[in-house]
Amino acid sequence: MIHVTKTFFPPIQEYQKQVQRIWDNQWLTNNGELYNELSKKLVHYLGAKHIIPMTNGTLPMQIALNALAEEGEVITTPFSYVATTSSIVWEKCMPVFVDIHPEYLSIDETKIEAAITSKTTTILATHVFGNPCNIDAIEKIAEKYSLKVIYDAAHCFGVNYNGQSVFNYGHVSTCSFHATKLFHTGEGGAAFVQDEETLHELFYRHNFGHNGPMEYYGLGINAKMSELQAAMGLSVLPYMDKIIVERKKVCDYYDAHIDFSTLRKLKLRENTEWNYSYYPVIFESEEDLLEAEAALNEKNIFPRRYFYPSLEELPYVKTNNCSIAASIAKRIMCLPLFVGITPNQKDRIAETLNKIK
Ligand SMILES: *Cc1c(COP(=O)(O)O)cnc(C)c1O
User: Fold this and answer.
1) Which residue, by CA, sits nearest to atom 13 of ligand 1?
2) What's this model's pTM, rounded to 2 decimal places?
3) Residue 123 is inside which H or E element, if any?
């Protein structure tokens, strides 16, 4: 049976070597040696500025909103994982959905200004499938209206835009290091920020608000990454270049062997060095998608309808009728993409899809 993804497991000896260091240090969390080493190595590998590793990829979004969004209206995309919207609502802000671009699949920047009100504080947009939003246009709008920008960059490990890490854009970019993501620490994630002031605002919030053992800067929560998570990160990181190369090969195979006469691919933004994180295909209709899904399932292949449904359909939000996102969400599916997928499996996937039409 194959699924949309398969977690990369580094050789167990390498993980054991890292875990041994934890035992030697007798230190499990709070500014540990492995945590510090991973932070340094990630910033260096990615070409990012400042990182705060955390327990998952959702808390950095909540903490960033807590620091920047002031319980106001947050302009966001309906085409993302549920965590993007739930974080907004969890932080007592109001999500205001703006429809997506039909090809890039990220928020349609030309529709943002019409959604701005006196209560708008923040834009929280997702670089869907690692494909950057129109960062330049969003930056201009944010400047004009004095808004904060947070990017849900959960899919963006290793993505560069205009020659630098995509994490170097926005006031905060958040990433997920979940087991299903490109780089992982089992569960895990991070906030990336551009300046010391924002770093401080997010750092104390992710550590109970502490300013030393007896004093507090303000309200906080616990989102600290532990040494056990850092051990996995240090074991996976050396493989990232190879992982990305292997995934590119799978994508190239699909590009060459799938008949795209009635299917559409994601359109990558110009000036992007992509990370091959997902292989979404868009069908002409939901019926076509369901037919393809059933045919693949019959061969024990389980692609994922990602993202479905459109987040406007969540029971705890007010809808703004983003018809493009609603339509895409019904017709998009991510094909299996992972290191170690066999030629036979890739063949079966392409053949099955090609037989549908
Ligand atoms: C995975 C994901 C998240 C959540 O990350 P976790 O590490 O699972 O908390 C948020 N946004 C998007 C777009 C994601 O794909």
Assistant:
1) 81
2) 0.97
3) strand 120-126
